[in-house]
Structure formats: C-alpha cells, structure tokens
Amino acid sequence: MNGLFRYFALCCAVVILVSCGWVEVPSEGTGTSRYKSSSTVSQNRSNQRQIPGTVLVQKGDTVYGISRKHGVSVRSIIDANNLKAPFHLNKGQRLRLPQGPVHVVQRGDTLYSVSRQYRTDVYTLAKNNQLKSPYTLHAGQRLKLPGGAQKKPTVRNARTSYTVQRKPTTSGLSPRVNAQPSYKPTTVAKAKPRISRKSIPKPPPRSGSRFSWPTQGKVISRFGVKRDGLRNDGINISAKRGSAVMAAENGVVAYSGNELRGFGNMLLIKHSGGWITAYAHNEKILVKRGQKVKRGQTIASVGSSGGVTKPQLHFEIRRGMNPVNPKKYLGS
C-alpha cells in the first residue's frame, strides 16, 4: 500500500514539473545537468535558425572575415548594420548581409559563360556560391556576383574580334582562372578596356613560324581544364622576382595596364597574322601601348601582381579570340 502511494506521489510531481514548463538541458562541456526554461530554449533555437539575408556571428568572427566568406564588401556590411569603429562583433549577434548583384541562370549557361558576361573569374563565382566540381548550373538558379561586377556589353565588329575604340583593351583575354587558385584582393575592372586598331601601328612581320619562350623558369600551371573544373587559357611559369620578361615575337604593344581582375600588370602584344600574346602578373612594365617590339626584347619584369602570391608569369598565345596551347607553338 505504501509503495503504491509513493508511486502515485512521484507521478504527480512529474506532472507538476512538466506543467510548469521546465525541462532538463545538459550544460555545455560539463556533462552535468542544469535546468532551463522551455521558453528560453525556444528563444535560443529561434535566434540560431537561419534567416535569409542575415548571418549569426560566431566566436572569432570579424567583419572582414564575414565579408570574404559571403562575397560582400566590408563597407557594405558596416553601413547595413550601422556598425561603429572599431567594429567589434559579439557571438550571437545577427548581421544583415547586403544583397549584392545576382545573375539568374538561363538555359545553356555555364559558370564560365557567366564569368565572361560579368568580367570576373570562375574561381570567384564558385567560391561565392559554394559550388563544387563539376559546377553544374540549373535554369532559374540565382548566382551571387562579386561586388562591383558589371555585365559586359555585347560588341559587334564584322572585321575583327576586337572592338575599335581609343581606350586600350583586355577583351582578347577571357577572365578565367589563370594561375594557382591562391587569390588575394584585386581591383575590380572599371569601364571595358578595348584594343584600338586605328591608334596602334601595324605589327611588323614575324621573324619565324614559332614563338620564343618569354622567360626562363618552371611551368607550374599547364594549359587547359584542371581537376577541379577550372581552366587555364595559357601557362604559368615560376621565375625569380624581377627576372626579364621578353617579347615572344616581333609585334606591337596593343595593351599595357592592370584593369582586368586577377591578371595584375599585363601586356598584350599583337603580331602579324592575327596572333596575340599575353603577359600577366608582371612587377614592372617597360613598354607602352603602340610601341613596336622585337623578338627577345625585354618588355617587363616577373612579379606577383593580380591574383597570385608567388612570382610567376602567366603567358598566353591566341589566334584571334581563341586561346591555343603555348607549348605547341613555342620553340625548344
């Protein structure tokens, strides 16, 4: 009889505790138990759930780190959340993420074709959208674009692949990944630079059928598609910083500048027969647009400008708009 009474009393106590809204929740990292209100637990879960357009600050997060992770600028995060210097963040703080430009995927789009439209690179698009190889896209999918990305206008020119205008060009180069995928912040391209056929001299005749090597060093990135689905339109040659970069053939400098994202200080040299060679990541450029150069002439010095961290030369050979494997056209 006494045992039955104790059992009944225990059941009543449990019912009373449950009706009061208390549950037993283990405390973090101790293995012991601590009592918390069920309403508090619900509130914590509500705070931790994902809310579109926001991010919940974790321990160790910084404004810069969040901007890199989500592909938005530091300034836009500061402005959107009215943050004040020195911009310290607290764990559990919720930040609004500014909605940057997006591209709605159309039928037939590829990550590469989208990168071409917005003058960015495949690596940045894949990273901003957390895409994995083989980077398959679906119609209607929304791709976050890097801050400052602008759609490249459609250009028509019946006589040549390059548009005639007074400003210099990098339109002969596709903004694809051109080196090892170790990127650092670079300046976003401004107005579209273009080659002007009217304002540069006619290229001199070539000295031979093959091009010469532009610098001495080890090839660290070969032409073509990589394992992760990215593509190199040329080759990358590791060399000592400051080493001479030489013209691969007689020609005329069609572009000298650093407007194209990821390529740093770059030269385009136009050769007779519709050939173009490109030299990127230079430390210094020693020739000007419109200047005629000879095969083997020093035109720049090896550096690590643009989207690379180690001294190297990104070198391309193009026939018109089409990149070709430089090793097939370089002399021994």
From TrEMBL:
LysM domain residues: 53-97, 101-145
Family matches, as SMART domains: LysM
Composition bias, Polar residues: 29-48, 166-185
GO molecular function terms noted in the UniProt entry: metalloendopeptidase activity
Stored PROSITE patterns: LYSM, PROKAR_LIPOPROTEIN
Record-stated family: Belongs to the E.coli NlpD/Haemophilus LppB family.
Entry protein name: Putative gamma-D-glutamyl-meso-diaminopimelate peptidase
